[in-house]
Structures are given as structure tokens and as C-alpha cells.
Write a structure and sequence with these properties.
Blueprint lengths: L16 E4 L10 E5 L6 H12 L1 E5 L18 H6 L2 E2 L12 H17 L3 E6 L2 H8 L10 H11 L4 H11 L4 H6 L2 H14 L3 H7 L9 E7 L2 H17 L2 H10 L14 H8 L5 H26 L5 E4 L4 H13 L1
Parallel strand pairs: 2-5, 2-6, 3-4, 3-5, 6-7
Antiparallel strand pairs: 1-7
Helix pairs in contact: 1-14, 3-4, 5-8, 6-8, 10-13, 11-12, 12-13
């Protein structure tokens, strides 16, 4: 499955554009997206692009939706939010779920509101599945009792990962690889739907309607050489630790949130929680965060490389910021 931009726009030459693919005429684009792996420099670029275009930013980050998780998710600061209006931040507490389907419904509403204000919706982040639910809408989940679902997922989340993978393969072999690669939350979703409805997620996908219409957009991916990205990640993790990540995690745990909660199992939070529990030193936790973040960034880059469709614009993330912004704006204006 690939993501199609659905855009009638062609790419103009620009010094920061590393390459692009042909695009066929189609529907008018409804949004501009700036995507790429963590550490690629999307935030600074998106803020500049949004200010130049008169846009509003919609976060494509599945962790920045959690309140109180600011440092470890590299969430934009209050000062940056004052410069550009943001949507999709601080929507849930760390112990609450937020599905891709919910994001799709919210994002369609935000896009419509931004358009009615005469501004440009700029989608920014590295959660590819959030982007895909807009360009390739997913099915509407069957009704399930929220209390039962939370209780079930709480039990399932305590199982070892290998055990979860075994049950996912048994209950829904068609979606097993996708679910397992998507991590704990994707596996919990597959299992909870199967157990509570009596039918697998694959079964429901075939028989249920989608969440909404497919939206067309201009999609730009910020690409950075691996060695440069690794160095940026190294610096970022150091800055997070120096900037108060340990205190942030301690505060969340003090508020009653647990390492297995949907938000708290994010990279950075689970390692620091282990440190606070006395199971590793801070230096060990910091190194594990770097390793896990590098692996996550590689998975993101691979996903975008294989899932983004014709018309995607590749932007050189090592070029000067103004040149990158010009490349993105040219793609939108073409």
C-alpha cells in the first residue's frame, strides 16, 4: 500500500530539493505536509513555512498528543505556539488512548476550520500512519464498551512482547506483520477488537465503511544522511536530559501514570522510568534512549521511503533553512 499525494502540482526546481517523482493530475490538494524521521529538522522548517504561507500547523506526532510530555517528545514551546497556531497537541492524558481513526476525524475538522479562515493547513511530524488515515481512510471501528476495552488492554499490556506477538499471529495472521511492526499499541488494538467483537481486525476492514473521504495533499519529506541524523539525535537526547527529562518523567510517575500507559511507553520515558526505579544509571538510560531513537528514526525513514507515493518532494535537510523553506513553498505553489 502506498500513500498518494493526489496533487495536481508539479515540483519546481529548488536548491534544497533532492528529488521528486512525477505526479498525475488529480484533485486539488487540501494540505501541505512536512514529514520525515525524528531529528530531521521538521519543527524549525514547519514554523518558517507556516509563517511565510500564513498557515496553521497540525501535529502528525502520536506522542505529542499527551499532556505533560513536553521535553521527551520535543514538543514546540509556548513561545513557538504563540508565533504559529498549532493543533493536535495536549489532547489526552498519558494513560488514555488516541487512535489513528480519532486523529483522522479530528484532522479533517481542523483542516476544514483552517481553510475557512483562509489559511494553509500544514501537517508536520513523523507518525506516518496519521498521514495515511487522511490520504487512505481506515475503516470505522465497531462499537466497543470503553471500560471493557481499557480493562482488557491493561491486562494485555502486562504480557511479554513475545506473548503478544504470538497471540496477534494466531488471532489475525493477515495483519500480524503490520501490527507487530507498529509496536504495543497496534498489537493491543488488534487483540482487543478481536476479543471484544469476535471478529479480527482484517475481517472488520473488509466489511466496515471508512472514516471519511481521501484527502489530497502536497507531501514533502525532509531527508538527512544517516551519519548527520545520528549526530543530531545524539545532541538532542543530551539536550533533553540536561533540559529536565528526568524531572518530567518523575513528575508524571508522581501523578500516578505508569510505564505501561499508552503515552509512558514512548522512547525516553520508559528508559528514564527504569532509571528512576533504580534498574540502571542515568548514563545507561541516556545511551539506551539514543540507541532506541536511532532505530526508530531508521524505521520512520524506511516507512516513508516505501509508503509515500508519486509526487512526493524530497527536501535536503542539510541545506540552509531558508532554502528548505523555499523548496517546500515552491512545491505548494506549483
Amino acid at each position: 500500500m502506498t500513500l498518494a499525494t493526489g496533487s495536481a502540482k508539479s515540483t519546481k526546481p529548488a536548491s534544497a530539493v533532492a528529488g521528486s517523482r512525477d505526479v498525475s493530475p488529480a484533485r486539488a490538494p487540501r494540505f501541505l505536509a512536512v514529514v520525515g524521521p525524528t531529528g530531521a529538522g521538521k519543527t524549525a522548517l514547519s514554523l518558517l513555512v507556516a509563517r511565510k504561507l500564513g498557515g496553521e500547523i497540525i501535529s502528525l506526532d502520536s506522542r505529542q498528543i499527551y499532556r505533560g510530555m513536553d521535553i521527551g517528545t520535543a514538543k514546540v514551546t509556548p513561545a513557538e505556539r504563540a508565533l504559529v497556531r498549532h493543533h493536535g497537541l495536549d489532547l489526552r492524558n498519558p494513560d488514555q488512548r488516541y487512535s489513528a481513526g480519532e486523529f483522522g476525524r479530528d484532522a479533517r475538522r481542523w483542516i476544514g476550520t483552517i481553510e475557512r479562515r483562509g489559511r494553509v493547513p500544514v501537517l508536520v511530524g513523523g507518525t506516518g500512519f496519521f498521514l495515511r488515515v487522511l490520504t487512505e481512510p481506515i475503516f470505522r471501528e465497531p462499537p466497543m464498551d470503553p471500560v471493557e476495552r481499557c480493562a482488557l488492554e491493561d491486562v494485555l499490556a502486562r504480557l511479554p512482547r513475545a506473548e503478544l506477538e504470538r497471540w496477534v499471529r494466531r488471532f489475525d495472521p493477515e495483519r500480524a506483520d503490520v501490527a507487530i511492526s507498529g509496536g504495543y499499541q497496534r498489537m493491543l488494538r488488534v487483540l482487543s477488537i478481536t476479543i471484544l467483537t469476535g471478529h479480527s481486525l482484517s475481517w472488520w476492514h473488509v466489511r466496515h465503511p471508512t472514516e471519511g473521504e481521501a484527502l489530497a495533499g502536497v507531501i514533502c519529506i525532509v531527508e538527512v544522511p544517516r551519519e548527520v541524523l545520528d549526530e543530531r539525535i545524539r545532541r538532542r537526547i543530551g539536550e533533553m536530559v540536561e533540559g529536565g527529562l528526568v524531572d518530567e518523567v518523575a513528575r508524571l510517575i508522581g501523578d500516578g501514570y505508569r510505564p505501561g500507559d499508552p503515552g509512558m511507553n514512548a522512547v525516553g520515558y520508559r528508559e528514564v522510568a527504569e532509571h528512576l526505579a533504580g534498574r540502571m544509571t542515568l548514563r545507561e538510560a541516556e545511551e539506551r534512549i539514543r540507541v532506541a531513537t536511532r532505530r526508530y528514526a531508521r524505521r520512520q525513514a524506511t516507512w516513508f521511503r516505501h509508503q509515500l507515493g508519486p509526487g512526493t518532494v524530497s527536501v535536503d535537510g542539510t541545506a540552509p533553512l531558508e532554502a528548505q523553506a523555499s523548496a517546500v513553498i515552491d512545491a505548494w505553489a506549483a
